[in-house]
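Hey, I'm writing a tutorial for new members on how sequence and structure tokens pair up, and I'd like a real worked example in the thread rather than a made-up one. If someone can provide the structure for the chain below, I'll link this post from the tutorial.
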Amino acid sequence: MSDALYDPARALEDAAAMPGVRPVRLHRIGLPLFAVEIDALIDDRQPYDLLDRFVGRAIAEAELRTVPEIAGFLGLDEVMVDRVLRFLSGVGHVVSRPDGTVALTDLGARSVRDDTRYVSKRDRQKLYFDGVLGEPLPAAYYGRKVVVWDAAQAVEQQWHRLMTHACAFHNDALTRLAARPDRRDFNIPDELREVAFSSSGHAYLPCYLLRTETPRGPSLLAYSAVSESHDEHLEKLCRGWPALTAILNTGDSDDVRAEFGPWLDKRDIDPSRLSWTADGTLRLTLSPADFTAGGRKGIFSIVRLGSYITPRSHVLQLWCDDPDFRRQAVLERALTRVTASRDIEPAEAEAFLSRLCTQLETEPLSLDDLRRHAHKTGHFLLPL
């Protein structure tokens, strides 16, 4: 099974870019959900046949009510009109009255008004409710990029810790949702009618929970495939979930050298290179020779300098004490970003460059510095 989320480094970079925010630990979890299958009526749009349209308009606009009236008005055979009326009655557009007249239903009147044939049909749809409070997920969680695991898929994957459902699903949650005026915001279109519960099962939403330190104290950020940045909806949900705090405080050891031991051994890195900064950031300090540039052999690419990694849950920043090499890394990372984004605006590139200078603790660099670096390294046509 492929990873359901992007590289966690993206979430760490986003958090580190926030003023005063320092990422400390990252946890991969499967947020518990209820996958609820509903049964409903929906009006399917179909092409209007010519005779259906004219007969419908004759009833709606000319106020004709009998077969002879409609046939005479349209210049058609009465048998043909009767056949059309029978079909329209079968799809719910026309009703016959005891006095022999006909009338349009609401569905038929709407079809005439919109010049499209609506045909009601039964439809099944899946809705998601969180497993913490039992509330519906907003429509954004049904996006194309968002992966939701069913129970079997969740067990099969190995990266994300599956959280236990904190509540039971109550059928009245669907009833309450269907009655809400803003239900479209929770993926129930207004076109759905007679919404009814069919079945439910457990599901899981993969996400990252990032514990941070801020000037106001410890905080929590959540990341999912819904947004390019942190997920405020999940954050509110998780911050009000007492059981989650205990889960996040267990697992990895506070002895970071022991935690990172196998990872460091595999790369032949001395654990003494791990250190804490004055503000509490855990860093792995390497020499310029430990980074690669231009495909030369080494441990990490130069564009990884200053970035964050999470072999376990502790967040580790790759570092080098050489300020000139860090300056080169800023320019390389900015160049990679600019050349990969052909439509990037100068202001956006400048903001990214400024953020990198802060992150890697270098003197300020300008777009002119980046252009000179690009020219020096053979990138003559920057989109700036």
